[in-house]
Amino acid sequence: MRKDSIMQVINAYCQTHTLTDLKQGVQGISVYEIAEKLHLLRNNVNVDVNKLFQEGKVIKICGNKMYRFYSQEHFMRVTHKTLSAQTTCSNLNELLGDLHEVRDYEDPFTALIGYNASLKNAILSAKAGILYPGGALHTMLLGESGVGKSLFAEKIFTFGKKEGIFTADSQFVVFNCADYANNAELLLSQLFGSVKGAYTGADATKEGLLKRADGGMLFLDEVHRLPPEGQEMLFYFIDKKKYRMLGEANSEHEAKVTLVLATTEDPDNHLLTTFLRRIPMVIKIPSLKEKSFNERKQMILYLFSLEASAIGCPIVIDKDTMATLLLYQPKGNIGQLKNDIKLAIARSYLEMRDQQNKEITNEIRIHNYALSYQVKDGMSDLDIEQRREIEKVLVQDTYIVEPYDVIMVEEDDTALFAPPQLDVTKSDIQTSFEEYVEKIARSLEHDQLPSFIIDTEIREIMAFIHEWVLHNMNVLIGRSQSAALAFYLKNIRENRLDAFSHEEDLKDYDVATMEDARSLIRAIEQHFHLRIPAQELHTLACILNTFTTNTLQSCGISMFVVAHGTSLASNIADVVNELLSIHYLIPMDMPLTKNVNQIMDELILKIKQEPKGNEILLFVDMGSLTSLEETLRQKTSYHVVVIPTINTLLLLDAARKAVFMQYTLSNILQDVMRMNQKLDATLEHHIHNHIAQSSEKIIYTICYSGDGTAHYLEKYLKDLLEQEGIFSIDILALSNDSLIKIRSMIEETSKNKEVLCMIGNVDPGLHEYPFISMEDILMSDGVQRLFEIIGDIDVLHKSDVVKSFERDVFVDVAFESIDKYLMYLNSKKLYPLLMKFIEGVEKELQKTLNNRTLTRLIVHMSCMIERLLFDEYHFEQNEETMVQVKEHSKLYTIVTEQLEAIRSSFHITINQEECYYLMQIILDDTDENAHVSI
């Protein structure tokens, strides 16, 4: 039945989710996704899935724009909670409730990539600090920008909550000292609170962050921006657990707060020594370049998974791209890496969209050419050791990241053993494993095992086991054996095996086998965050014992590289063999002084020296050898295949798969074909780019020095072009007081480029290029002219895109201008508060204010805040104001409510008359839209 098929899809989606997955946020599966998988009409799926909901088989999740569904049976099995039929929720977290019995053994730090590697010492220190017998220790986090100090601090607090150090209602309060670095009084007022009259504008007593964080944790980011007097007040609090609010002389307040401080600077150079002495725990968070390649790979795939989920499309990353990203060392660490990955996805999408004659796919493929030049810089410093390490880490040719990380595994196909009986013996286990290996081997033949069975995790475990057994036991195991063992370990993690052990059976193995089993367990637990029960030691020893008959021997394929010249083939073979630490690839040099017959005789002699039954794979560069495949077969009686190329990358990959992954000749040939196609496509793309760069397009944004117009025009234009998928146009901001210098700068930077136009508030007078003034952008048809010049007429039909661009420019012009009127305040600090007010008013009125009204509001409110803050004068109330307020009571309520954030931020009182003036500005706007009721 159709309904049963739908339920199977929902169960397949849910079956791999653990309790941790549910807590971290599982969205459920939508009707659209089910219809796509089963190739059904959405209306039909919608009818059936609602029947399942009525029957109590699925949970309906109503929190998103569309309904999503989740298996009720799976949810109850994982959480041990009982749900009623027809259960609905806005998200699954609502249904979790208090699961203390589960949380007791869940460590919040395990959610961090590298928790048992690069972050291990940091986490141990953090735990020690929280669990310190005399009370949690105050902590300093050191690290570069973007390494995750804020997230780490939050995990410290979560850990403290789980351990009972903090109560359930305690708060994790965050404050960035840089936000008020230029105003010490406001900064200290935020931290300690202030009494009425403590400073100009302090019209009421206000509690500080220490009060809010009482009983919990206060995280102070960029603490090096805290002024010396603030540091002194803070270390008084650390010593006495007491503090005074700003403006208090005698009274003191008590609070129990654990401080976590973070800085990107050297604390010895930026913080008082007396303050530093009171922070006993100092923890350094490692940067991205200090993490292992394996951690970086996890981070990269995690960031790609975020983007795949955001765009709802699978992303396929090739091995070369992964290698380049592994070597990338961004100054902005994880934050910058995330932006570079977004840019690569955007470029790849544009490339895919522009391929008119190629098959359209429902996935985005990321190749090396999609990465920016700064990302690819690291490849130039690649040494042999790094190459070897990358080869170990990157075990796949491509990495597929789905929008939802769902691993569909049929239970019958991956269960290694049935639930064991009490009388299971060593020979039973070995027999079961060997039979299972044969089953896996049949599935792996010709690489036909579905990707949803051999997922990314299984492949990584397979590669790790293969490498570990080879290095530590000098045993070469096949893909089927490593896959079988990987499934066995995965089943342990999913609690799908019943552990058992007989102490007497352990005596049947020698000390070396038992030690190997213990060592492998430790290595797997550390590398894959997988806990293996002690009872499984017996089973694992049995499995390892089946491997010992597989000595490191020939893979059944002899691989030659044959090239013209005295040493070309030898040099290539040396490179491949050294990178893989093997002696496998056989060189055959062809000096130009020898004729073809001599070369053929030597080659036949070398082939005949290879073990009988081996298949022969020849990589040749050119000439008559490329057509002598059949002749070589007849004269040697070997199965000979000739590949007419000697690309080093192809040889390296083929040798690796033959020796270490035990690929068949057919598998290797298929991979050679795929990789060669990819290399050809990359070469074609590079040549295309080189040709295109000779006529690169550029737009200049221009203003006088100190104006700032050019730079925000540059920013908004780049954002708009990227939004429209246009990445081939460069935007360059020029700012100078001299028109002659501006012209000179244009001449210098426009060589070999096509200048599309110039935009700004000053015309440099270069009549060969179109000029669009700021007035045209804001008041006339400037935006239309710009996109006509670019050649993207479609955007002009998107009125919301054009209006958004014009509005952004208008707002920045307004804020740029108010700096001329303000004496004390900085427009950058006012920006978020004023825009929050404007957007709140627009939302309540359900309309967008015009650009003229925006400018009036921004200028008036900026001056009003400074005037009230420094108590210069207030507007007096009068009868006309009262009449207008009553007449437009709805608008008055909206204005006063939206002003609350400004009142509390600046501690000012905004009376009815001030609100009236703001209402008048808004009413002037709405006069043009009489249908708007306020």
UniProtKB/TrEMBL annotation:
Q: Which GO terms describe its molecular function?
A: ATP binding; transferase activity
Q: Which GO terms describe its cellular component?
A: membrane
Locate the PTS EIIA type-4 domain: which residues?
Answer: 556-699
Keyword terms of this UniProt record: ATP-binding, Nucleotide-binding, Transferase
Q: Name one GO biological process term.
A: regulation of DNA-templated transcription
Sorted alphabetically, which CDD domains does this protein's record hold? AAA
Looking at the record, the residues that make up the PRD domain are 825-932
- Sigma-54 factor interaction domain: residues covered: 112-346
Xref: SUPFAM superfamilies: P-loop containing nucleoside triphosphate hydrolases, PTS system fructose IIA component-like, PTS-regulatory domain, PRD
Q: Where is the signal peptide?
A: none
For this entry, the protein name equals Transcriptional regulator with AAA-type ATPase domain
Q: Which species is listed as the source? A: Longicatena caecimuris
Its taxonomic path starts at:
Bacteria, Bacillati, Bacillota, Erysipelotrichia, Erysipelotrichales
